[in-house]
Amino acid sequence: MSTTVDAPDTMISRPRGALVSAMRRNAWTLGLIGILALLLVFTKIIQPTYGARGIQGLAVSVLPLALAAVAQAFAVIARGIDLSIGSMMALTSVVAAALMEDRSEGFAILVVFGVLLLGLLLGAVNGSLIVVTRVPDIVVTLAMLFVWAGCALLVLKTPGGGSAEWLRDLTGGSIIGPWIPKAAVVLGLVVAAIWLPIRRSRLGLSLYAIGSAPLAAYRSGISVNRTKIFAYMLTGLFSALAGLSLTASTGIGIPVPGPYTLMSVAAVVLGGVSLAGGRGGIFGPIIAVVILSLLRTDMTFMNLNTNLATVAQGLILVGVVMIGSLMQLRRDR
Predict the structure, then answer these.
(1) For the chain, what is the domain count?
(2) Using CA atoms, how far apart are residues 136 and 75, in angstroms rounded to an integer?
(3) Does residue 7 sit within a domain?
(4) Which residues contact 293 (CB under 8 A, 6 or more apart)?
(5) What is the pTM of this model?
């Protein structure tokens, strides 16, 4: 009799327990979503005319940095870091712009696939150098920053080239309704199409394993070197996607790397990815990118010096790193 009565309670408690567990695992990301919601409300208060067009402009402006943050997240999860992301973005952007200039719309499709393969190749070179030379990731990628930046200047000395019309239309404007920017939809589809299958695969688990404990991963039969190269290939792929988004949004290729490398590191840290590796995801850094960009926008609306946004970002990062360190010490105890 008691079994019949208790069964429904048990069935109800299991989903609740799973929900609570999921919320605990994603507490940091949920906190970021809350901060973003409050920031959007604050933006509307200080700028009543901020609406659908503002959201569309925000989505277009954050797209390259969001993709760069995803690229950096792959390297950091695998206990690495890539300081050449900005240069890879510049190189893939100018290659795409140079090849698309005065060419047909159909040829641009081949260019896009070629640029994505180029991104994979650049990432494979970075990863292979790290594995073969056993030099720390930060040193190798710092050196490759100058190599890829020089290559970008060899392709285009000054901003130029062109972009296919369909590529520009892919990120500009909205879809279905004015509140759903195309750039946000493209970002969501691209990240989901690549990240979700990898996250659920053996390679995805290997990324987290080598980030958490490389020696334990090696003893478990995981090829640490191969997985490390794979992580940097993904970094190169998303850097190429970020470069293509730059070409799409500006219509030209820009050979000079922007602040994307350091901003991607900032977004990864704020997004809850541990710099020690093995912890974090992709969604958090994307939300962090939107927060950092909206913070700068709000300072513009308030007629404040936008350089203060850089100071604020630095203070936020210091606070996040301190909180992360305290949480790690608490776990160790």
Answers:
(1) 1
(2) 13
(3) no
(4) 58, 61, 62, 65
(5) 0.90
